[in-house]
């Protein structure tokens, strides 16, 4: 194809006719949102909604300024600034592939240890929303859901509020400046897969502020809003295949392309203290029933991801679509979803739990979405604790069967041994990997060693009925093999 032009504002007119490009003048955009955590998901989801709204001639004063608080974010910043913060989104539909270049993001603040540039940007009165995608485990919560004031990062920010290490400390520093200058609050918008993510963000910000400045904490609590939201779109990691796809199929030199499925959903509480874009004009839903939507999604999709990925890793199945093709894994997934998860989920407008399970089965089966079991299984300590354990507790409390969910926990324990059934090594894949691996190995002689990890299991560690079911499945996996255990449950 010859030399390709680097994606930039100057080369948009050179894009192939098949590639949709921004229909608005990006030079006239002004910032309104800071987004912390510029991973693939944000760029395929929230940034896309804003981009499409801008295409309609709306929200040109709500452009996104990107930010990060981790050292690796500097490399992402360099990639995006080199292409004027433009992104190629590639939709992977089973019936075909299409591409679109989005332009709602206009800048990326420097990544600094003291977060000085980020604080200054958030203190700008033009910024009315600070949004985050910092992963489920990034909110400094204890296993019981409370605020973890003893974490080293939190202790640092409490002692050094002007030079914070965390995104939350930077938000607090910016809000202090805004309060003192009389420029008012901003909305904190979590876009992570957490039940009640807005409430959790509020807890983290207010609790951290209270450690160094109780009066500011009270001001934040009284003036800032933290709407809950539910986000949904399957977005694989970008690697050599995605870079090759954007280059060879579409002729675009993009160093940070994003692939995604042909499905998006965003449900948000309409609780924005300083205004908001009209995202509902382009498909988002403002609702006071976010809890019901997110419960359906987190329990069926996110918990379902763990159910598939742990089994897939043990059996050397590399992708989620591959797991859905595997007869024993798919049967296990289908039964635990319909018999143990769906009864814990309420319907939402236009969707029953049963129909949502069917939708998820279709989405997970999309062979064009090369979503690896390794990516999905990452940070199981947060995801099992957040997605599966609440359902186990509810079913135990009501005397219902937990066999399938206990099997899912046994599969996670077996995966954390770090060796697949074919003898290959599972590389560390959790912030607590060493601790998890030690417990998994100890459970070979003492099955209870796994669920006695109170940090992850809390009160479940002492539940005799859960322990019996878990230990039975773990012993069966080890004595008969994973497929045999899956067939014994799933048929």
From TrEMBL:
<dbReference type="InterPro" id="IPR013118">
    <property type="entry name" value="Mannitol_DH_C"/>
</dbReference>
<dbReference type="InterPro" id="IPR013328">
    <property type="entry name" value="6PGD_dom2"/>
</dbReference>
<dbReference type="InterPro" id="IPR013131">
    <property type="entry name" value="Mannitol_DH_N"/>
</dbReference>
<feature type="domain" description="Mannitol dehydrogenase C-terminal">
    <location>
        <begin position="290"/>
        <end position="476"/>
    </location>
</feature>
<feature type="domain" description="Mannitol dehydrogenase N-terminal">
    <location>
        <begin position="32"/>
        <end position="280"/>
    </location>
</feature>
<protein>
    <submittedName>
        <fullName>Mannitol 2-dehydrogenase</fullName>
    </submittedName>
</protein>
<dbReference type="InterPro" id="IPR036291">
    <property type="entry name" value="NAD(P)-bd_dom_sf"/>
</dbReference>
<dbReference type="InterPro" id="IPR008927">
    <property type="entry name" value="6-PGluconate_DH-like_C_sf"/>
</dbReference>
<dbReference type="InterPro" id="IPR050988">
    <property type="entry name" value="Mannitol_DH/Oxidoreductase"/>
</dbReference>
<dbReference type="Pfam" id="PF08125">
    <property type="entry name" value="Mannitol_dh_C"/>
</dbReference>
<dbReference type="GO" id="GO:0016616">
    <property type="term" value="F:oxidoreductase activity, acting on the CH-OH group of donors, NAD or NADP as acceptor"/>
</dbReference>
<keyword id="KW-0560">Oxidoreductase</keyword>
<dbReference type="InterPro" id="IPR000669">
    <property type="entry name" value="Mannitol_DH"/>
</dbReference>
<dbReference type="Pfam" id="PF01232">
    <property type="entry name" value="Mannitol_dh"/>
</dbReference>
């Amino acid at each position: 194809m010859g030399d390709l032009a680097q994606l930039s504002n100057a080369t948009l007119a050179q894009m192939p006719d098949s590639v949709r490009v921004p229909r608005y003048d990006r030079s006239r955009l002004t910032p309104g949102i800071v987004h912390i955590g510029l991973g693939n998901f944000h760029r395929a989801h929230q940034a896309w909604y804003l981009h499409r709204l801008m295409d309609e001639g709306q929200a040109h004063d709500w452009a996104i300024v990107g930010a990060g608080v981790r050292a690796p974010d500097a490399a992402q910043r360099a990639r995006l600034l080199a292409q004027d913060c433009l992104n190629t989104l590639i939709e992977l539909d089973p019936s075909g592939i299409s591409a679109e270049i989005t332009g709602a993001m206009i800048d990326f603040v420097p990544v600094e240890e003291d977060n000085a540039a980020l604080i200054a940007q958030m203190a700008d009165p033009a910024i009315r929303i600070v949004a985050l995608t910092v992963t489920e485990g990034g909110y400094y919560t204890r296993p019981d859901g409370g605020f973890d004031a003893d974490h080293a990062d939190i202790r640092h920010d409490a002692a050094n509020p002007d030079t914070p290490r965390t995104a939350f400390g930077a938000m607090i520093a910016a809000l202090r400046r805004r309060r003192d200058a009389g420029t008012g609050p901003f909305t904190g918008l979590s876009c992570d897969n957490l039940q009640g993510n807005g409430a959790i963000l509020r807890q983290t910000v207010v609790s951290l502020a209270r450690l160094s400045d109780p009066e500011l904490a009270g001001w934040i609590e009284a003036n800032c809003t933290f709407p809950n939201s539910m986000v949904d779109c399957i977005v694989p990691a970008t690697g050599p295949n995605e870079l090759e796809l954007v280059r060879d199929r579409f002729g675009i030199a993009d160093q940070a392309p994003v692939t995604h499925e042909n499905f998006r959903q965003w449900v948000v509480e309409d609780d924005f203290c300083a205004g908001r874009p009209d995202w509902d004009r382009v498909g988002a839903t403002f609702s006071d029933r976010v809890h019901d939507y997110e419960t359906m999604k987190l329990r069926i999709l996110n918990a379902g991801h763990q159910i598939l990925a742990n089994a897939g890793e043990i059996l050397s199945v590399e992708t989620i679509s591959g797991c859905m093709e595997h007869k024993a894994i798919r049967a296990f997934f289908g039964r635990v979803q319909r018999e143990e998860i769906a009864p814990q989920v309420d319907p939402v407008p236009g969707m029953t739990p049963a129909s949502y399970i069917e939708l998820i089965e279709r989405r997970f089966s999309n062979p064009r979405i090369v979503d690896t079991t390794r990516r999905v299984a990452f940070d199981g300590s947060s995801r099992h604790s957040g997605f599966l354990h609440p359902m186990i507790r509810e079913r135990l409390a009501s005397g219902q069967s937990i066999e399938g969910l206990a099997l899912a926990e046994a599969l996670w324990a077996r995966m954390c041994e770090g060796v697949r059934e074919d003898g290959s090594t599972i590389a560390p894949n959790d912030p607590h990997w060493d601790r998890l691996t030690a417990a998994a190995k100890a459970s070979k002689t003492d099955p209870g060693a796994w669920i006695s990890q109170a940090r992850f299991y809390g009160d479940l560690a002492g539940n005799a009925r859960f322990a019996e079911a878990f230990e039975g499945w773990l012993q069966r996996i080890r004595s008969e093999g994973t497929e045999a255990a899956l067939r014994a449950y799933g048929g």
